[in-house]
Structure formats: C-alpha cells, structure tokens
TrEMBL record:
Keywords: Dioxygenase, Oxidoreductase
Domain Intradiol ring-cleavage dioxygenases: 115-192
Protein name as it appears in the record: Protocatechuate 3,4-dioxygenase beta subunit
SUPFAM superfamilies: Aromatic compound dioxygenase
One example GO MF annotation: ferric iron binding
Signal peptide span: none
Source organism (scientific name): Amycolatopsis thermoflava
Biased composition (Low complexity): 60-76
Length: 305
C-alpha cells in the first residue's frame, strides 16, 4: 500500500524536511524551529544522536558506536561557561592579560617579575577553534587565553602561597588551522569541581586587553580514567579524595549535559606526559552568555566581582 501523506517521518509532531536523514541532520531552519537556546540545542543533539545510535543497533546496524555518538553530540557551539572566581583577565581585579609576555606557549613558569615554576605531570593542551558563522572553517588569528589550577588545587594570582605568581596562564594565537598549543602540567581536582581547564577566545591579540571582548568563554573537562592515573602521582594526594566526591553529572558546570561537547580526548601516560585535545566550535552570530562565578574553590573566599 502506498503510504499516506501524513505518514511522513516527523519529530515531535513536526515533519522532517529530510526524511531519509537523521534528526540531527535536518538543517538549520528545522533546528531553530525546534530549539529555543544554545544550551537546549546541545542537550537535543546529544539525545538525538544517542537515540539514533540505539535505533540503529536495534535494527542490526553495525555502524553505531560510542565514537560516532560522541562526535554527533559535540557538533554544536561550545557552551558558554563561567570564567570562575580566578580568571586573571581584569574582570575582578588581577589582570595577567595586560602584562608583557602573556603571549607564550609554555605556561609552567611565571614571567615578568615572578619567578616560580609549577610542578606536575606534563600536559600538552591543544585546542582547535572553528568558526560556525563561516561554515565551520578554521578560525585562524583568534587569541585563546588558557588558565588552570596547580597540582595542589590553587590558582596563581589568587590562592594562598601563589598570589605573587602568574604561572599556568597564557595566550596563543590560532594558526591557519585554527589550532593553539600549550605546554603545561595536569591540573588537580579540588573540592567541589570536576577537573577542568578554563579558556576564553578573543577575536585577535589586540582584543585581550578587555575581557568583555571575549567571543567565547568555556571549560575543558578531563576524562576520569586519566585523572585517576595522574592523581596517583606525588603532589596530587588531595585530588584522589576530591575526585571521589564529584562526577561530571553532579558538577555545577558540566552537570547539565555531562560535558558532552567539552570532554577532551587524551593520549599519553604519566611518564611521558599527556596530550589533551578538544575541538572548540565558536559561533559569532550568538551573544556570549557566560554566567557569574560559582562559589567555593581553593584559596578562600572568591574575590568580589
């Protein structure tokens, strides 16, 4: 029997404009009509991709894998997240971005008038920035500011004992492939937060002198198995217990979607160091909406903003 017109494949009562494709591949117009904000869009993409994968498995397909699902879930814009209470970008006092020498690739040592060095398991951080407003092309020339805590869980410029240091902070300019690369150490897990790395994306190097110029503010989530290996090493003792008390789903930043598009891919080992990689998709057509700093964290009461 020939199917009736009203039997056309639909999603939530809405006919699919591309009935032979997956729900996540129906086009921008369909997405906009279904979704109301970026955060909801991210959740939809994750659920839709997983649902399609499960349906394919039930039908006997061999093509649905965890890797495929992760890629589909992470196809949208990187979520805007809080810069936290220790950004050092001038938004709440200390401003490392105004200091000569901030554009650098090796973040382990302080610069300028500070001379300290942060110890820990070696880590290379590689972020690849793409421009969704330009069809997902490499976002060459953007400035990416990265910062994270020490292996003890403190933040330079803020936390007790390292207020006079500026290590584990730096800026790189994206190359022709939209890539920036930093040499650093693996951060701790401090009480109340999942292990993470902060970053801000600016239009260009000249823009970093004003934190309001950032076109994206987000965080990189670190995989649990890698964290567990790192935290067995000397200097990370407090991280072992702290990691047991938190999860990606309970974290106050990653918890809304489990870090679906912020969970890094990591290779390496504790002896030779790790390479942490994440695709950062930025859409300049949207308005940045990073929230206020959450309470808690190392170094006592967060500074007022």
């Amino acid at each position: 029997m020939v199917p009736m017109r009203d039997e056309k494949p639909a999603y939530q009562g809405r006919p699919l404009p591309r009935p032979h494709d997956e729900v996540v591949d129906q086009g921008l117009g369909f997405d906009i009509g279904t979704l109301f904000d970026r955060r909801r869009a991210l959740r939809f993409l994750g659920i839709g991709a997983a649902g399609v994968a499960l349906t394919a498995c039930g039908a006997g397909s061999t093509g649905a894998t965890a890797t495929t699902t992760t890629t589909s879930a992470a196809s949208g814009e990187i979520p805007d997240e809080t810069a936290g209470p220790y950004p050092g970008d001038g938004s709440n006092g200390p401003d490392v971005l105004a200091q000569s020498g901030i554009v650098r690739s090796d973040l382990r040592s302080s610069f300028g008038d500070s001379t300290g060095t942060a110890e820990g398991v070696p880590m290379t951080l590689q972020l690849t920035v793409s421009d969704l407003a330009n069809g997902g092309a490499a976002f060459a020339g953007v400035a990416v500011y990265v910062w994270h805590c020490t292996r003890e869980g403190g933040y330079s410029m803020y936390s007790d004992g390292v207020e006079d240091q500026n290590f584990l902070r730096g800026v790189q300019i994206a190359d022709a492939d939209g890539r920036v690369r930093f040499t650093s150490i693996f951060p701790a897990c401090y009480d109340g937060r999942w292990p993470h790395i902060h970053f801000e994306v600016y239009p260009d190097q000249a823009s970093i002198t004003d934190s309001s110029n950032a076109i994206a503010t987000s965080q990189v989530a670190l995989p649990q198995d890698v964290c567990q290996s790192v935290y067995q090493q000397p200097g990370y003792e407090d991280s072992v217990a702290n990691l047991r008390k938190v999860s990606l789903s309970s974290d106050n930043v990653f918890g809304d979607d489990g870090g679906a598009s912020q969970l890094a891919t990591v290779t390496g080992d504790v002896t030779n160091g790790y390479t942490v990689s994440l695709a950062v998709r930025v859409d300049t057509r949207t308005t940045p909406s990073a929230g206020s700093a959450p309470g808690g964290g190392p170094g006592g009461t967060p500074p007022s903003r």
